[in-house]
């Protein structure tokens, strides 16, 4: 794009000097560290491969704007191979990248006079360029070779963006995709989006909501999607489309969408062919079927495998794949939603076409702040399973709470399923190493929107960042990722970096304390999922209420999943049953996920359940106050607008933490009939008053 | 705000150099004209009144950032009255502002060594500052005194922004109001919004959709609204709330919302008192009642006057007012929606409390691209009538067509109602001069959203601008307003300014040609109102179809409102009946509004109706091609991103113009049974094909 090359300064009016966050972590502001500056000062040119492909061109552009911004240096473009003081972009088989290293692996090789960024693929070279820039931006001097390989093959964002411009569970304005402007207008933000993703190694995106409109499969919209795909392609990003299973009827005029019907199969074959005429490297389909009212193969008495395999058949001539979601559950007041996905899919293990990946949410319910890992992981040896995380913070504070999610992603990935003995972590299921699978997928539900800063809360950008980095390498620590992001986005002051990292690391445990302590889950405001509503008793479905999950009664609290009400614990390995299945051994963070615990039962903290519950809610609130104090100390290091935005949101967070605390403590007190511990200050409102507050958010 | 004062330059990365439109017309980039620069070079300081109120502080700030940006000059703040080379801000009664000049009138007085900006009010002084800056920004040297007075007292934006962040009929992202962040976080955009409005003299804003949620009247939300009001207050902008008439039941727990019920009246009195505790200068209520399913006094057998007067009673102790919308119509397949507002309100003329203004849309149907003025104007001598224009382009190309609306606003305002004899224009009804009213209102439905450039199409900003300027002074010409806006927003090159003005002036006639020529109306896509759907036959209500309005049959086209089907024409004065009511004298632009014209009838253009219809649709499309050529010539003068955005949208406009043309010509051809004139190229698709295209936009 030409404006990337505007190498002159214009007068920016004074009013817009504050940082609106629109550049994400790719800020490229001049770095202050003189040592780092001089370490990179010797590089004056870029040596590119003889074949200047679009992706190499992007790598070149990025290096140029990066060096110009970070170091104030203009890198010249040099095609002579014998230059010194150059950054060499190279597509070749270096020994650093063994023959069987994963696609898009790259190496940065430090030579005497040059720095070589090398990969078997041009996308790998682009990734190497971003790695180099990230090192400079975080003020690191590269002194030895860097070799980096992705652990997971498909690193993907799932957009829940609707055709009408809204975003389901979006908290940062409207959709970034301007469908009415496409294909003619390419919003410059599409390019920022592509750069941001490529900088993390994200290589796939499904552009529309899984509650999918058929219109995305019409020629009218394929032309629009093609325009987006053309922008993303040079950045190594493949486009997927979420499809509505009923499309053969809706669009094709067929009488059925039965996946075993010949005409239906033919329709999908033709449609898939048509898509490839627009997008030759089409990523594939993402399907939510027979879930929450969406159509699917079960409407015709067929299985999920029948549906997925039909689409896989249509995809056969191409490289694309079919991603089929396992997020299904029937409305059964006597059942346990926890088990639904497992039970519906278990008989199908081994029946899916090799082109199908089944995409499983990290936990068995629905992106709760702390869920045990989904029991499907480790139990489906003959099915390729991808994992779906939620980056957008539907249940995690939306745009007003600071919650850094890398610890949650890691907790899930690091948990041992014991499927093939000790060490069979979820990450090994996902990256294909446990069952030696060649296809692997980590998907994250995007948190992008039209807001200037893309993600609402300035810290929400860190969750996009962390997801991408973990999808590339799930062995990166949550701390290292946070510090990278802080350095790129907020400040490179080491002291501040440590302190902000500390804020981020404790943010999720704090959030969980004042919302869902001890393994409580699914008690949010009905529909909009904003704020608490533990008293929600009636909803369109029993499993959309709160009481279905917390099961508070005069005896105690929690969902007994160890046999009496549900035997969900049996879906896990013996080792897990022995711990989580035993109320005395169960990690307190998962306690009420699996057990109905008497109010007065002493926990290993020395407190009764009731006391522990109260203490957690109260200490969660106290911690939100500390977050404000700690953030206040960061003021000297942070851009003013960003500082103010975060500080204001921390104040909202405190207010809403009190709202959660008061709601839950006052509500559960009706069951426990026990007093709030003496050393805690009683809520200054009644249960009826907090209920009234929640009602406000249900008014149209 | 502190960041206004960041008087240093920081390095902005190269990628963000393009203009994203976020500064609206207040760009304050350094002006190039040396003569203008030197003319203002003598001013070095600002002399402010002894009492430095918040509004004076804003005036001071604005002058400082304006001079810094436009002229590169730092103005010092000087409180000594005997300084020379100063810009003096003064609150006093100058002879230039006679005692009975309207509130907020101001004068800029050119003295030998100083420039004095004077007004009876501090808001007037702020307006004067914006007038001065506008002159500098458009490269005008002020050589003689400027005196300026508002013609209309209440110059107001109506936001149709919902509590959930969406905007009804919004085409620029989501709501600018971040309810979940308020009251704690003040988005910096609120300040830009306030400055932009104050720069035009807009002094009121209703912040929520007229399809109103009761939640805006809860303490929880009043606290949020107060935070917004506190930001807007120093800029002279009063906040109004759209209210849900059922609130006494919804919020107050009463059994009724009957406006004659004592408890209901008491509830509103208490609620109004409560609001004033948050917002002492509360503007008042805006009410959509018994309209399109909204609750209202008729639910209890009461009249609109009963409802409005009840609210006026509650407002009695305060300065606020009640704005009651006249946009009401019952679903009667045999009636004529054209007459509904008039007929429902006519018996109430004289029955409204003095605190009530009845807000009437510019035309009798609903913001169609070209509507005859609403017959209520001029027919309600005992009722204060305000006018409601739609700035957001629901029926005018949304975010993809270039349509400059000042000519439409002017056409309505300039039309003679003949109510008190010749010269009784709509503008004289509105500004209060015809009936000597002290209260007057011009409201515009806002087109703001979360998009970086606020309004979607870069040229949509001009409609916000034009509305505000006309609300201040409806005698300003559409051309002068356009040139001001171009100079502030796009370029001060005189040649380019003329050419862009020409594009703007013809944009609306062009749009009308390919959508609603000859007085056609209401044929847009159902629900979303995007694209054409003239064949819409069934809808939730008969008056939401297209056939209700165009009445195409084998004989001809158009709605006979001269007696046989409806006698709507009789609502106008005799002079109008004599012209619009006579198919041979009627302005062709209104022809099918009032007459069912035979297909073969010769019009005064020499063409038959059918031919004329075809020619207009076709020439409309041709003109969209010319717009692209003309815009292309402007490339050297325009910021690259803005240029590209407009050019891409012009291409969309052409595509959609063809869509409209093909839909309407092919559809009406089924009735006229006449061939498309020989010299026109036939559409390259069938009616069935365009119908299919429209169906796509109805898919979820």
Automatic annotation (TrEMBL), chains A, B:
It holds the Pfam family Glyco_hydro_67M. GO terms for molecular function: hydrolase activity. Its EC number is 3.2.1.131. Residues 455-679 form the Glycosyl hydrolase family 67 C-terminal domain. It catalyses: Hydrolysis of (1->2)-alpha-D-(4-O-methyl)glucuronosyl links in the main chain of hardwood xylans. Residues 137-454 form the Glycosyl hydrolase family 67 catalytic domain. It comes from Emticicia oligotrophica (strain DSM 17448 / CIP 109782 / MTCC 6937 / GPTSA100-15). The lineage of its organism: Bacteria, Pseudomonadati, Bacteroidota, Cytophagia, Cytophagales. Residues 24-132 form the Alpha glucuronidase N-terminal domain. This is Xylan alpha-1,2-glucuronidase. Keywords: Carbohydrate metabolism, Glycosidase, Hydrolase, Polysaccharide degradation, Xylan degradation.
């Amino acid at each position: 794009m030409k404006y990337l090359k505007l190498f002159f300064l214009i007068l920016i009016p004074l009013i817009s000097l504050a940082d609106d966050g629109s550049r994400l972590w790719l800020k490229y502001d001049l770095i202050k560290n003189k040592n780092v500056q001089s370490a990179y000062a010797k590089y004056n040119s870029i040596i590119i491969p003889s074949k200047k492909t679009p992706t190499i061109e992007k790598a070149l552009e990025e290096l140029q704007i990066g060096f110009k911004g970070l170091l104030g240096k203009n890198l010249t473009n040099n095609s002579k191979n014998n230059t010194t003081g150059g950054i060499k972009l190279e597509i070749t088989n270096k020994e650093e990248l063994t023959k069987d290293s994963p696609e898009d692996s790259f190496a940065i090789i430090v030579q005497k006079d040059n720095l070589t960024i090398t990969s078997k693929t041009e996308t790998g070279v682009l990734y190497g360029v971003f790695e180099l820039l990230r090192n400079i931006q975080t003020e690191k001097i590269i002194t030895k070779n860097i070799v980096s390989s992705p652990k997971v093959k498909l690193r993907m964002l799932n957009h829940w963006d609707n055709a009408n411009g809204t975003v389901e569970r979006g908290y940062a304005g409207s959709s970034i995709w301007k469908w009415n402007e496409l294909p003619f207008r390419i919003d410059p933000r599409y390019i920022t989006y592509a750069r941001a993703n490529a900088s993390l190694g994200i290589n796939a995106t499904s552009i529309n909501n899984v509650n999918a409109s058929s219109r995305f499969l019409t020629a009218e919209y394929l032309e629009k999607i093609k325009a987006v795909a053309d922008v993303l392609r040079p950045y190594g990003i493949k486009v997927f489309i979420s499809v509505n299973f009923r499309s053969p009827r809706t669009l094709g005029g067929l009488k059925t969408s039965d996946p075993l019907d010949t005409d239906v199969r033919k329709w999908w074959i033709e449609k898939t062919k048509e898509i490839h005429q627009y997008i030759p490297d089409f990523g594939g389909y993402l399907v939510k079927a027979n879930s929450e009212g969406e159509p699917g193969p079960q409407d015709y008495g067929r299985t999920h495998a029948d549906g997925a395999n039909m689409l896989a058949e249509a995809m056969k001539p191409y490289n694309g794949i079919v991603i089929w979601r396992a997020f299904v559950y029937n409305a059964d007041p006597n059942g346990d939603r926890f088990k639904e996905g497992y039970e519906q899919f278990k008989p199908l293990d081994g029946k899916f076409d090799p082109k199908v990946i089944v995409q499983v949410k990290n936990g068995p319910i629905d992106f709760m702040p702390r869920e045990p890992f989904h029991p499907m992981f480790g139990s489906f040896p003959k099915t390729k399973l991808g994992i779906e995380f939620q980056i957008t913070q539907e249940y995690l504070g939306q745009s007003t709470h600071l919650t850094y999610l890398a610890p949650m992603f890691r907790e899930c990935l690091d948990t041992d399923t014991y499927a093939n003995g000790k060490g069979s972590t979820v990450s090994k299921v996902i990256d294909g190493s446990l069952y030696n699978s060649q296809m692997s997928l980590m998907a994250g539900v995007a948190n992008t929107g039209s807001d200037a800063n893309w993600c609402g809360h300035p810290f929400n950008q860190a969750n996009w960042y962390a997801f991408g980095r973990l999808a590339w390498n799930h062995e990166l620590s949550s701390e290292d990722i946070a510090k990278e992001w802080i350095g790129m986005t907020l400040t490179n002051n080491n002291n501040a970096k440590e302190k902000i990292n500390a804020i981020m690391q404790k943010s999720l445990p704090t959030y969980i304390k004042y919302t869902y302590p001890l393994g409580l889950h699914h008690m949010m405001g009905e529909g909009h999922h904003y704020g608490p509503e533990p008293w929600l008793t009636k909803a369109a479905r029993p499993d959309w209420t709160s009481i279905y999950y917390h099961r508070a009664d005069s005896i105690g609290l929690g969902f007994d999943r160890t046999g009496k009400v549900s035997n969900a614990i049996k879906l896990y390995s013996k080792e897990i049953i022995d711990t989580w299945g035993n109320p005395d051994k169960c990690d307190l963070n998962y306690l009420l996920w699996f057990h109905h615990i008497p109010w007065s039962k002493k926990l290993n903290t020395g407190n009764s359940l009731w006391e522990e519950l109260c203490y957690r809610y109260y200490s969660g609130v106290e911690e939100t106050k500390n977050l404000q104090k700690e953030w206040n100390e960061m003021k000297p290091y942070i851009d003013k607008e960003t500082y103010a935005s975060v500080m204001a949101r921390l104040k909202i967070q405190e207010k809403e933490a009190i709202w959660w605390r008061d709601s839950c403590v006052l509500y559960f007190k009706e069951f426990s009939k026990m007093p709030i511990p003496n050393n805690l200050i009683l809520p200054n409102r009644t249960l009826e008053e907090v209920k009234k507050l929640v009602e406000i958010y249900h008014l149209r």
